[in-house]
Design goal:
The protein is mainly beta. It has one helix and eight strands, in the order E-E-E-E-E-E-E-H-E. The strands form three sheets. A three-stranded antiparallel sheet has the order 2-1-8, with helices on one face. The protein has a three-stranded antiparallel sheet with strand order 3-4-5, with no helix packed on it. A two-stranded antiparallel sheet has the order 6-7. The protein is flat, with a radius of gyration of 17 Å.
């Protein structure tokens, strides 16, 4: 596969939306194995899970932030930098 910039952004999409059913358990529900109190308005997880990792890299001078979500115990920082290169107008990059 390859990363390339298109008029719709990065292809394939780098940002993924995960959908999990929220299972009610009394006043506390479960979402992706995490307890959620009914009063919560925000749900977050740092990615410190053996099967899932995240990397958020901010480039304040350019006004760019990249979030990489991986179904892996570790995040490949090279992929973050390759994505940044494509956003900067660089050539298509392989990610295999």
């Amino acid at each position: 596969g390859a990363l390339r910039k298109s008029k719709h952004g990065i292809n394939p999409p780098v940002i993924l939306f995960l959908r999990h059913k929220i299972w009610p358990v009394g006043r506390v529900s479960k979402w992706a194995g995490r307890p959620i109190d009914e009063a919560q308005t925000e749900i977050e997880h740092s990615g410190g899970n053996p099967n899932f990792a995240t990397q958020v890299t901010m480039f304040p001078k350019e006004g760019i932030g990249i979030s990489l979500l991986a179904n892996s115990a570790a995040v490949n920082l090279v992929l973050v930098n390759k994505t940044k290169g494509v956003l900067d107008g660089g050539p298509e990059q392989t990610y295999a």
